[in-house]
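This follows on from our talk about sequence and fold. Can you supply me with one protein entry, sequence and fold together? Could you add the entry underneath, on a fresh line?
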Amino acid sequence: MANDRLTGNLLRVLPEQPVGGDEPIPAVLAAYTRDLVLSVEQTLAGFLDAEVAALAAIDPAMGGFAATARDCVLAGGKRVRPIFGYWGWRGAVGDAEPLDTVLPALATLELLHAFALVHDDVMDHSATRRGRPTAHVAVAAQHAAAGRSGDSGRFGEAVAVLIGDLCLVWADELLARSGLAPERLLQVRRGYDRMRVETIAGQYLDVLGESDPQNWSVDRALRVARYKTASYTVQRPLLFGASLAGVHDDAPLAAAYTRYGLAVGEAFQLRDDLLGVYGDPRTTGKPAGDDLRTGKPTALLMLARELASPAQRRALEGSGSVSTEPEVARLAEIVLDTGAVGRIERMIDERVQEAVAALATVTIDETARTALFALASAATDRRA
């Protein structure tokens, strides 16, 4: 995939068009996105096919298990993390460096993402992901259909944990295949390891919040967004890309990426909070209102409780105990009436503006700057 082709595609200003079936992305990025996503998909498919074959040679059942893990990785998605990783790298090196050297590293981010999603779905008891059964649900169904002994649900959860673990190991293996000098790869690994630690820390805070929602707060919900989403969705992939180019943590570009990444990442999660209540399941691939059913202490729900009247607050305290569609719809209406939705929309806009400002003065490849400006909007103004 030639860099000059990417540049031409990126700067071609056309009306919005859908990309990959997920959502409209400004066509200034559309052709580029198709090329990069295709390259990442091909890298992942080639790597995973070989890994599945190696495990199948041990035992046919291992091959089936590995194939399920592979399917979790290749089941779709926006490939947001490799996209941000690419532009983090491109912002530092310009258009002179070949992509092949860093493509395995960029694809690594999708294996890390698969690990996080599979484990997250087990912890959240989620039934669907991207419009399909989640890994633990699919494996449980296979267990039941085969007539095996034991509890199918418990089996599905146990295997899903192993699938997530396998994706994490595969991520390490694929990263090591990048065509980087050993000292450069060591620098990249330091940031990569920090990203993984922060992801797990954010996930822990998320689980903790669900166990004590009455004592949670907007500030703490935003902290969860910062570590669970912003860190490994935008900020760390950008810094990961910069480290692939040899940019050190104390460089001005790294500081700009950090500021941009936190702002866009938090806005990304705030948009997810809104979609979790008001999104169209046909687009999001998940049932609407799940956060209200579980009482998940998102920034949206915490803000609604802060802004609510006494009567509204009493009703919102019932979130987590509702089950019927009318009950969920009523709670969603109350959240809207508190003004929390409008406040969250303003918070998203403020963060996008902060991200744009972060890149306005730093020295960076101009094509990358244009792409990151557009991605700040595309990642936060979406329907899925």
Summary: The chain has 17 helices and four strands. Residues 1-25 have pLDDT under 50 and may be disordered. The beta strands are 17-19, 23-25, 128-129, 132-133.
